Amino acid sequence: MVPRYTRPAMAAIWSLENRYRIWFHIEALACEGMAEYGLIPKEVAHAVREKGERAMATFSETDINRINDIEAETRHDVIAFLTWLAEKIGPESRFVHLGMTSSDILDTSLSVQLVQATDLLLQDLDGVLEALKKRAFEHKETLTIGRSHGIHAEPTSFGLKLAGHYAEFARNRQRLVAARQEIATCAISGAVGTYAHLDPRVEIYVAERLGLKPEMVSTQVIPRDRHAAFFCTLAVIASSIERLATEVRHLQRSEVREVEEFFHPGQKGSSAMPHKRNPVLTENLTGLARLVRSSVIPALENVALWHERDISHSSVERNICPDATIGLDFALVRLSGLIDRLVIYPKQMAANIEKLGGVVHSGEVLLALVNAGLSREEAYRIVQRNAMETWTKLETSEGRSFRENLLADPDIAGRITEEMLEAAMDSRQYLKALDIQYERIFG
Amino acid sequence: MVPRYTRPAMAAIWSLENRYRIWFHIEALACEGMAEYGLIPKEVAHAVREKGERAMATFSETDINRINDIEAETRHDVIAFLTWLAEKIGPESRFVHLGMTSSDILDTSLSVQLVQATDLLLQDLDGVLEALKKRAFEHKETLTIGRSHGIHAEPTSFGLKLAGHYAEFARNRQRLVAARQEIATCAISGAVGTYAHLDPRVEIYVAERLGLKPEMVSTQVIPRDRHAAFFCTLAVIASSIERLATEVRHLQRSEVREVEEFFHPGQKGSSAMPHKRNPVLTENLTGLARLVRSSVIPALENVALWHERDISHSSVERNICPDATIGLDFALVRLSGLIDRLVIYPKQMAANIEKLGGVVHSGEVLLALVNAGLSREEAYRIVQRNAMETWTKLETSEGRSFRENLLADPDIAGRITEEMLEAAMDSRQYLKALDIQYERIFG
Amino acid sequence: MVPRYTRPAMAAIWSLENRYRIWFHIEALACEGMAEYGLIPKEVAHAVREKGERAMATFSETDINRINDIEAETRHDVIAFLTWLAEKIGPESRFVHLGMTSSDILDTSLSVQLVQATDLLLQDLDGVLEALKKRAFEHKETLTIGRSHGIHAEPTSFGLKLAGHYAEFARNRQRLVAARQEIATCAISGAVGTYAHLDPRVEIYVAERLGLKPEMVSTQVIPRDRHAAFFCTLAVIASSIERLATEVRHLQRSEVREVEEFFHPGQKGSSAMPHKRNPVLTENLTGLARLVRSSVIPALENVALWHERDISHSSVERNICPDATIGLDFALVRLSGLIDRLVIYPKQMAANIEKLGGVVHSGEVLLALVNAGLSREEAYRIVQRNAMETWTKLETSEGRSFRENLLADPDIAGRITEEMLEAAMDSRQYLKALDIQYERIFG
Amino acid sequence: MVPRYTRPAMAAIWSLENRYRIWFHIEALACEGMAEYGLIPKEVAHAVREKGERAMATFSETDINRINDIEAETRHDVIAFLTWLAEKIGPESRFVHLGMTSSDILDTSLSVQLVQATDLLLQDLDGVLEALKKRAFEHKETLTIGRSHGIHAEPTSFGLKLAGHYAEFARNRQRLVAARQEIATCAISGAVGTYAHLDPRVEIYVAERLGLKPEMVSTQVIPRDRHAAFFCTLAVIASSIERLATEVRHLQRSEVREVEEFFHPGQKGSSAMPHKRNPVLTENLTGLARLVRSSVIPALENVALWHERDISHSSVERNICPDATIGLDFALVRLSGLIDRLVIYPKQMAANIEKLGGVVHSGEVLLALVNAGLSREEAYRIVQRNAMETWTKLETSEGRSFRENLLADPDIAGRITEEMLEAAMDSRQYLKALDIQYERIFG
Known about the structure:
4 copies of one chain form a homotetramer. Chain A is mainly alpha-helical. The first copy, chain A, has 18 helices and 6 strands. Chain A has helices spanning 8-13, 16-36, 42-57, 61-74, 77-89, 102-138, 158-183, 200-210, 225-252, 280-293, 296-301, 312-341, 346-354, 362-371, 376-392, 402-408, 418-424, 434-442, and strands at 143-148, 151-157, 185-186, 213-214, 259-260, 343-344. In chain A, β1 and β2 form a beta hairpin.
């Protein structure tokens, strides 16, 4: 992910340094676990931990260069790190990584990084939820037109619109908690997962201290269906972001203008057109959603590794793990800021409801006619006829409102009174279930 | 999905007739719910149920044609169905669909179909789990070579390989149960989800009787993040199928021949080469996995509907809902049959373990040397040198086995005895954790 | 693809019957080619052609059932067909398929079907181009507001908008012609493409008569990079359809109303809201675009077949070949009808241009100030300030037009005259390059 | 793309510095074009060019920081650059960017970068073609077994296998040349593409000097169907890489061992198993193919921008443009080196051909029987029976070779002589069309 869309906290999780720190920690824990079960001397485990901690405390560019040099020869990143570590630890290093395979630390380390990343994303989601909730309550009774197919349907509450997104992001939070469990597993099981040179208790020891669970069967690697499920969840969240971003983009259109992204003093919308105030943040979120989603297919293609493993997943994960989590982190934080500061125009919402001459109440009028004894089909025909008459002449001088047209229709006359029509066209009725809905959503 | 890969039970779920049956049932339930809360007369609800049941009982091609004719005029499928239903029910039809919007029955109906499909898929998964478990126990102690990168690594148990897939499919079962919950929701909330012309209690009434939960906020439609998450789960399962299929394809290679798909008497592998016995079922599963996976992106693209809804998701779902579930159903059933009847060659497995002259025990030899006091790096160099010597001369006359080479190496002489080497090269050691692992997996 | 989105002409191409007809034709041509080069007797080739033609002329359900029965035993579709054909041809059938492999007819037959499908799609594209051209000329001088980010930018011509889509579809036509070449190849090269039991001249003979080119190297199969490239092209076209569909959906929004899909008498937009006229056709096209696009990834995954071939691509292609071409055919025909009958509202377009009080001319005013000697930055600040003032007070009583605000600004006074401002705000200037552009596009 | 898979030449193309250099060059060319047509004074164009060149010549971190500071205020990257440039150029900067819109330089600049990237990729492809050609000729007559479904089919030439990949990469080269044309266009057409404040001749002037063509209709942006088609081509190439990589991975399997990736002295295959020599490069290429392919869907989703443009494509392209081209560049260079140094084992290939006891000649034996007068079906049955007998007893003591079994079969006795059988089982026959094929491919 380009720096433009990268926040430092998430970048730090994917830094080389963090990776090496976790690698060391896993190796040290494994030694401690082995010592615990009498497989290696306790002093060795202490020495590894102490000397290693000291080396990591002063870890610098020099160390990275040294590791790179070793990798240039061995063409194996874990061996390079272990060789560097052995140089720092000395003779006790003989017991480091004993009976383990590279993937034991690679995959367990990836689990730790993904868990760290997920915890950040959960915080981000909380931010989005908080912003949505605040604005949903603020605009609980703000009437706005509901739209299906981009066409005015019936009035609704702007707060309820936001509450719907809140409910969706609450689902996303649950999904992310489940996804976290998917990838929070540990493997210290050796070359092909038989613990041939290892004691399964060591894996449990390490897992517990890392907040992970031992993987059920790791065949050298932790099975990639877990990671695939994880990336699917990120993609669903990204798509929810896109839905909310698309909503804002629509509502900011010049002809609609019901909301606007906060426009900073000094901000310029266009190099050519000084009048522009564009919903660039939500357009950006739309693009980021595409990026995050694009990790799903490679993650799924990574599942069918050959036999006990092949390494084709590695280059994929080196990219999509940081890219998708960094992109999503940035997008969620941008989204919560955006919602928090969204400029909302209730007056314009009210004006838009009236724009179609009242036809948006056709559903309620239909029901009023049915209640007055007409068949559904008959009532539909009458209401549609009057709505179309209103609609097509909307901006011409001879245009009458829906209400006027209805009152003038001989098929209606005598069936419902002007008061009944008035009642059928009262926007407040659309808010009647609001309390129940808010109670359901926000508890 | 083409008929070739379609099983009748799943096809029936997606039949037009099943769809109409569910539509009617929802409308009838809604009437009953309204009657329950005094919104319409109880007799109406009874009449709707009774006359409707009668019409559905004799539902035939004639009815479908009649509905199609109405749709040709109205260009609206739900209105067409309701008009047909009104013709069958008579005057009481006035109360059918009262205050509801088309999506109330379309989306709730889709939920019912998806739940039905999922229940079938869960059965299919149980079949796969059963077959894998049976064969895993049958071959618990069958030694086979574990392979990473397609290269011999260390021996393992063939049963454990299957157990690993069992564990993966057990995870998939859990995921599918969660995915079932995702899409098991009901919406009877009206045009833009405000219950403007409805009572929220009717939705709860209908939902309960359909085994669904009322949707938190349905904005005319049930939000599509749910369906996206559902299809993601199908795609993960499909990828797991691909992994197992790929394993079988590899093991059936002419040079490996450790397993074979059951070959039917009368079956022909090739029109040109009568000797052929090809793993066509697992290749087919590989292709089906690609197809099922291809539903993920459109499902994710369906999430960002405009405002309270647009109908772009509809054409997508008309295809991917049947296609993905039918394809996955077929694949799972094919997979369980395949595993159940898989021809397994333990002798060939044993022979393959020996094929590389014993180098597959290099890891254990490395450890023996480390235990004998060598540094890890030194031991690695010695073992690698002897393994490469063995490997590169494998098929030449001068080729000595790994064991012979090691014994002749002056750097080893005196460090470990022939007995220690023998022990390090005993394949049984790779089975030592099996009981623990089986206990973990199968409980 | 569900019947709802299937046109008969494209369905016929993918019918089982058409497939068998092509299979027979290829086998007969191969016999004729072999006879031509003296490899089999000429009488045999004549007999095969004559008896085969007769069998195909009366081809019916009975034949399909017979073939299915044979396939049920042999589990091989081509062998089943050849066995049926042998029953029809008698002893001469001995020479049919001689030295060939199943893929020789399967892959060549697929090429023929894809070429037939492409020719239909090319016609469809011509229909779209024609409709776009007609409406582009009709509305060449219809002024409309250009929008970037959904925000009013500067006026443009509605015809030019359509002309831009015309140019895009003209590119798509070129791409489809190239894609047709990609898949128009023939393979009659035997089991692994060595012509071991065949004469390469036979392949050339068959290819020529089918309008195909012999495949450079077919390794049993025609390489799948060709098909992948083909499906990519369909996906690009689908995305162009989505772009145009999205444009129409936007322009039909209740607040914009610059165009409307033709609304049939009798059509109903909503079961609940009789007033609705929704852009359902273009929403449908948006969904179909997602479906067509979804064939790209499986087509790409099909490329890396194992060795000389595996059959994993087959199940994929049995679905995506008909699905993607049928879906695209339907979409293109729907699109051309839609454009042809699109209801266009020039008055509403003119009204919308004025909606922002004239700020859409800010770019031209900026240039006028620069020409009057101001620096770009200074001019930008002045124009932006006045545009924002206009914009934010747009719908309030104190709102002045952009022109009024500018004239009242002391920083402008004296720099440009009222006439210069008038000129800068004349919408006609945006049409000045139209003739050049139309000449470029339509030649 | 992570540094691990990034080559400097491609990285340079996507550097911020290269981007700014191109931006300046476009602005300078636009001034020169305007001067050419008398729209601005010639001295201005000279001054812009001269002062700008000077500023770019000493372009450093300081300049980047200054630009970033301006962008932090204006939130617009192009305006930030232009403001910085104005500081460097002084009063003449008034004429820079005159009448242009940001996208004029952004999109034209992206075209230039994509062309530069493509030219590098074309060189890379030439490297792959060269390596494949060299090895194809080297092993033109090296017999190897052809495999379908992973099962031995018939012998073929190893050179021909490589030649088939050569033909595929030659097609990819053609596709990339076409893709280069797709994105080699220029837009200097103003805010919504009407040239309202510009002269179309300036666009032609700039385009010519950049080696681009003027875009037919740019609606503020160059239409994204072009970029989508471009990324599709990269994805097809990536899939071809995967096919070749998969071939090598298969052939290096321990049981097959027909080829090996070059193994560097000092290289370590595994931290746990010193004997390992893994095909890690081709596994890596498999993963990179997944990554490159993952850019296709977002590129296709970028096509349907709203109206004259929205900016959702921008974040997508900031990532996929460098990622996909850098990844593909790295993969192609890795691939050509790999093929060039691939260790090939003809003896092992010869040995593998014999592994199935001669059944790989079943097709030719079938033909010999048909030529001897048997019907195809009868001959098939006999040959299949004997092949299966051979196959199933392959590794048991009682196993006879295919030839022995055939000779002992009473249904064959008297029909074909031992010499005819010998001839039918001669591997050289599979090379008979090689010269024709090489001539076709390499010309």
